[in-house]
## 1
Amino acid sequence: MSRSAQDGSSAQRNFVRDGRFVDETRETGRAGRNPRKRARPSGLYRGCIGRLGVLGLGLLLLGGLAGCLGPVAKAPYARRLGSGLMGSLLGPFDGQVIDQSTGSPLASALVVGTWAFQETGGMATPESSYTETVVTGSDGSYALPSLPTGRQFAGLLRRFTLIVYKAGFVGYRSDLRFDDRSPRHDFVQRGNMVRLDRFPQGESHVRHLVFLGGGPVLRGAAQAEIIQASLELQETAPQLAEEQPAPPSPATTAPPTEPVMNPAAPLAPAGVSLREGS
């Protein structure tokens, strides 16, 4: 009988050291003898086991974890239209973007997916976010991957938001409608249909950009509209009143002065004029 048969399978003597599996036979050079000090999961894996308990340990033993899944909030949308199944904030997401008026697919539309996290303890404080960006193909289709495993170490995954932008069209948000800012209820995770309306003449570009939100990728795609919004703000800005010069201060009038009398001149009685030579 071979030594491995006598001492049992070496796979049963594997243990975790510094986040990786270590073969006990290779570590000691002899099968069946345990090292003096067994390695303990450290760093990343200790955090996972502490948060997931037995389940986390079981997942580690099945092949290790590239990341430790944190808490995930309930998704407010369905997996597919009419499926009756709840969607997942983790993803993936796919669908198609079309022109509402013609039904034609819209190629090269910008699709931005953002996962938002918040701290799990105490107040609901935003913690971080992660964004994936794609553009639609010639058939108007888009596909966003699931949240990368390495990003699942953040706090509570609170929400996922999908934004679609195409120049000349009213943008799309998965959570809000543009016309009345009411909540959107027709978004689905898989097979989502995005119908974009042409941007109406006279509509405010400022209002549209505020609806879409920020982000460097979106700002880069909407540069032309940002310029239009700036001009719009300049036209509607109140005119500042020009400064008027201060009115001159009223001149001070000097009180009337009495005539200065010459002490050498003789005083004439009232009503009598002095004439020379009289």
Note: The chain has two domains: 3-63, 93-236.
## 2
Amino acid sequence: MSLEAVNIITTALLIVGALVIIILERKFPYRKGLPIFRDGFWVDLIWYTFIQSFFLKIFIFDVILFPLDQHYKLSALHLVTNWPIVLQILFFVVTHDFYIYWFHRFQHENKVLWRLHEAHHSVKEVDWLAGSRSHIFEIIINQTIEFAPIILLGASPMVIPIKALIDALWGMFIHSNMDVKLGKIGNVINGPEQHLWHHADKKEVFFSNYATKFSLWDRLFHTTYLPGYKPDKYGLYYEYPKDYFVQHVFSVKRVDENKLRKNKKLKWYFDLRPVTLHWMAKHFPFKEKFKKYKNRLSVHFTDYKTS
């Protein structure tokens, strides 16, 4: 199978997987009443998921990893090239997850690293999309370390899209608002029940549940926190900005977003999004068209039932 075909298949699986998780969130909610378009949804979807991911992919691979490999030519050693692809994927998934456990733990224990990680914990209504909110430098560090060994050790090019798919689906799963109990397998595999506690606004869990894919790391290093009931609050205990750029400024200098919004020099920026949305609503009345379509459907089904 060609790399292009693998890219198409993994992209399709990612979309389907996201839709399945969204449906399951509605069907089996961990917290009832959580809206689909919760506070910060569009920032997470547009800025973090689409825009940031697009540009960071170019930066990490084209500016850092590929030039690094061209300079040192480590991939020419073919250290893992002859391994079966399944073994390659398993090796990089496990080793990277072990690294993520410890880096994640250091982020919670180090004041400087916490500044790069707090954005991820700022979502107060944690759902399938919440995991996408991560500081730009946190992503650069983590994904460079994640994909560098894959390229430098001479792994199959197919490993990158397949592992990226596993990361994305697992990230959506553990952050999802699904009431899932994994039972004994939860001692090895991480799921929403354990990770949603990690996002709780509760001091007891601030230094717990660091695992991403394998909860085994938390068990081995005694950082599991699963009290048997559900948390009542999520997010940070302090005020955190809602705007994408202000969130990044906040990691360097603590600023008051409300004061910035009142600044006359910045008024044009904070007005940009509502003005754009108003313009779009005026020229592209999606809601009105949806209502008309919905009304037509209801009429159609009414006629069908009475016929």
Note: Residues 70 and 152 are 10 Å apart (CA to CA).
## 3
Amino acid sequence: MKIDKTHIQKHNDKLYSAHQKKVKQLANEFPNVNRAIKKLVDFQIAIPSWALGTGGTRFGRFSGGGEPRNLEEKIGDVGLLHSLNKSSGAISVHIPWDIPTSAQKIKKLATENGLTFDAVNSNTFQDQPNQNFSYKFGSLQHVNATVRQQAIDHNLEVIKHGKALGSKSITVWLSDGSCFPGQLNFRKAFQRTLEGLKEIYAALPRDWKMFVEYKAFEPNFYSMTVGDWGQSYLYASKLGPKAFTLVDLGHHLPNANIEQIVSLLLMEEKLGGFHFNDSKYGDDDLTVGSINPYQLF
């Protein structure tokens, strides 16, 4: 769906006079307001392709009408958002959910909608149709080298798709972990995961970045192999200067001091970015700022 730019302009024109009065009032009170406005104008948030549906729960989906059915329709939806807010100029895709049939055509469609491609995301937290080996007991941490290689190869494929679309980064989130004490050797799981990440890191194009995303729990509840910012930071530090920690606001235990985490990652120049949402208990995927607006800002 596209909205004619003239309709948006006509709507904005009706509000322009009142808007200018407010800006003038702010400028009189705050001399540097134009600098702040410029930062807001330049601020862009990539829209994740998997966030465009409705009715999702942890146990099933109750789809609403008008949900995008493919990558082309997802791009159209993000393009509509960007035409309205001018702050959503990129889309982040998830492989294999969003494998393009033609990268050239998809790039052209994105350009027509004023969009670029942000980080591409790999998926080793689900078994896919016709997949040779299961990730039931992990992917990069798995004790079976063949399973680990399958996960590595998938990430290399994701990088290939990302290059074709013009992306410059890959996000790796692993559901690897354990559900019971004694089920997993923590050190060996970490070491195996690090070795796998090193192979993926080595395949990064020169101008790419890798974001290592962490999560405190789910689907595993006793341990997660990338369970907190410290583990993610440890992986990123060992991998090299193109590896960073990605902070998902919902991937923490209740009452975690996310502000302090962000502060320290900034200090170490290892903050890769954010997944913006909000939570009361865990990975609730609530609207960002709906529970902790003060923490957000």
Note: The first strand starts at residue 47 and ends at 48.
